[in-house]
Design a protein that fits this description.
Blueprint (H helix, E strand, L loop, with lengths): L2 H102 L4
Length: 108
C-alpha cells in the first residue's frame, strides 16, 4: 500500500469512528430524553394519586364530622324532650297532690 492509500484509510477510519461516536451520542441523548419523559409522567401519576387520596380523606373526614354533628343534635333533642316529659310529669304529680289536699282541706 502506498502512503497516500494509508492516509486515506486512516482518514476514512477516523470518519467512521466520528460517525459511530455521533450516532452513539444521539442514541444516548434520545434514551436520556425518553427517561426524563417517563420520569415526568411517573411523577405526574404520583401527584395525581396523592391529590386523589387527599380528596378522599378530606371527604371522609367531612362526612364523619357531619354525621357526628347530626348525632349530637339528635341526642340533644332527645334529651330536651325527655326533660320536658319529666318536668310535665312532675308538674302533674304536684297538681294532683295539690288538688287532693284542696279537697281534703289540708294546706300545702
Amino acid at each position: 500500500m502506498t502512503h497516500k492509500t494509508n492516509m486515506n484509510n486512516q482518514h476514512n477510519d477516523k470518519n467512521i469512528a466520528e460517525g459511530i461516536k455521533n450516532t452513539a451520542g444521539a442514541a444516548f441523548h434520545t434514551v436520556h430524553s425518553a427517561l426524563e419523559v417517563t420520569e415526568d409522567a411517573a411523577m405526574s401519576a404520583v401527584d395525581a394519586t396523592a391529590n386523589a387520596v387527599d380528596g378522599v380523606t378530606d371527604a371522609t373526614m367531612n362526612a364523619a364530622h357531619k354525621a357526628s354533628n347530626v348525632a349530637m343534635n339528635a341526642a340533644d333533642k332527645a334529651s330536651d324532650a325527655a326533660m320536658n316529659v319529666a318536668h310535665r310529669a312532675s308538674n302533674m304529680v304536684s297538681d294532683m297532690t295539690d288538688n287532693k289536699n284542696d279537697r281534703s282541706g289540708k294546706k300545702h
